[in-house]
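Database export, one record per block. Field names are fixed; values are copied verbatim from the stored entry.
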Amino acid sequence: MKTLRTIGIFVTIATAMTACALAAPYIAKTLNTSPAVPAYKPFDPTKTKTLDDIQTLFDVTPEIIEGRAQATVDLSAQKVAAILAMPAKDRTFQNTFQELDAAEELLYMNIDFVTIFSFTNSNKDIRDAADKAKLMFKKARIDMIKGSPEMYEACSQASKHIDRSSLNEVELRYMDHIMARFAKTGMHLDPATKQEIKEKLAKIDSLSVKFGENIAQDSAARHITISPNELPGLEQEFIDALEKTDDGQCIIGVDYPTYVPVITTCENENTRKLLWKQFGNRGYPANEAVLKELIKVRDQVAHLLGYPSYAHSQLNYLMVKNPETANNFLDDLLVKASKKQKEEFTEICECLHPSISLTEDGKLKPWDSPFATTWYRKQKFEIDEEQISKYFPFEHTIEALLHIYEQFLDLEITQVTCPKLWDDSVRMFEIRSNQDQHLMGRVILDPFPRPGKYTHGCHCGAIQAVTKPDGTYQPALSCLITNFNKPTAGHPALLRRGQVTTFFHEFGHALHHICGSSQFCKLSGTSTVRDFVEMPSQMLEEWLSDPKILKMVSKHYQTGQSLPDHIIEKIMAGKTATYGTFVARQIGLSKFALWCFLEGENKEPSELNKKLNTLISPHVAHQPGATHFYASFGHLEGYGAAYYGYLWSRAFALDMFDKIKSVGLLNPEIGRVYRDQVIGKGATVDANILIEQFLGRKPTLYAFLKNGGL
């Protein structure tokens, strides 16, 4: 039989026409390059067993990224073509759904994998190549799988005559998940509508990548230049470590390790104001237009699918089910938070620093608010975060935190040498089960800021933990991207308490990703619903609210002493001091995300910002047009309307934490139960069921409200 060449692979005529139509048109257009050179091997997660395998993946050039990307899509297209060539009468769960997961795995994992390059590499050419590759993988998923009428028809044929009683619960869940996902992309609609949805979904992916790219590029360039004398209140070591101009002026960037100490500690109002404006305009003006278009296209897709808004179409598949329930949850919480927030403002105003003056109508200026809060905590509770950070040297703190995970979850975590990573500060850890010593996965930690790097903290789940049908196990790979304080000439890297919490949080995502192995890539690890995925990481944050744990993880970098009891007592006393303000802000961000994606394709983010400030910051003066926080609100791209999920899942997290604490925060027995029955299930069980089974009852808000003094 004659064969036909398609995107660098050979398939039979029976399958080539479909594979070519699905894959060939966009590959050259996406990367604007010739077909993959045969020397470039596809990124196949099943071939990453050893450290040498992992190191090879990160030893890249722009050309290698592009070549591997094409080779990977070629391989996925070959798998897709084989699925589509199967006669309808011969379709089974294994040769259709199981093979679909294998084909999608190549694309799905690569989206996070190339994101690591995009978020961490100082070489702009590599970042650009990674962004192009990410778009390629996303478009391939739409064209060949999620938005493919041919794949929909193949899966529909299979699902109709497969004997459901012959499948296990995980297989049933996967099949239902795939068919529901086809409904999300309109595969049940007429051909013209399906094509329109597919084109708009591809545009959404492009806008999403651009939104994040603009934040990273603009953040790397923004700064203020001031005299060292304009930084009173900051430690001399911090000032000495700042980059300087030729005439000795300090260059203050908007990266978090620089921004947070200055905005919370500097006693010069003008310095705070100048930096606040730069920080609040990251991504602006470029992302103003990108966000408006993202809102518009998402709304259009929702209408094509029969929903009144994108928020309705997205939340329909999550725990909350609809925007109304999410709004009611936030409104009820805001009543409680606002009362406490008002009390907090009154107390803060009773001990203002001399550099702070209220506006004529008795409000704090926005650039003064973080400093006023920090000053209040210093005065009332004698909590000096800069001094406390001396008890959290980076190396010791990370080691101590990992030891806590080891004890609680009955794991073994070992740092390993992996020299061919992208920066000398990056390190890798291997995680094994104490029960049988099998390698569960690896975690890469990229701790410190540098030009071009993603400016927040995040987790990228590069390779899923998958147990193959033949019983072989695929170890997971996670990457934690943080921006901790770098070491200086006078001391090692010291972590602020908030950064310690960030590590606990992000490593919680990594453990969820690694422990949640399943038969299917799309049901493994953190592939859970958006309003549940933050629960495990937020629950683990709470370990740092326990005095004994604080003792364990702290060690003064000079004296070697752990946090003194009197400081821990002050930390405990001040734990809920500004919790009302924190919750109100989270409610505001949640509301803003919902407002962006409720009914209406034409939204003015600046107007929504005014509405936001009125709702959640009644005690802070609004400066119209001075800043545009939404231009760097990266969650609008990834989380969409579901930012409420942070508070929603936090309520569950605290409920579960209370149960664990009653048994023991380092008790491996309950730790194993949590590992096996909650995070170990990945997305193979409904999130509501996971929570109720662990608690032995339905969750409540009691622990959440008690924890915050609400």
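Remark 1: The first strand starts at residue 3 and ends at 6.
Remark 2: DSSP finds 28 helices and twelve strands in the chain.
End of record.
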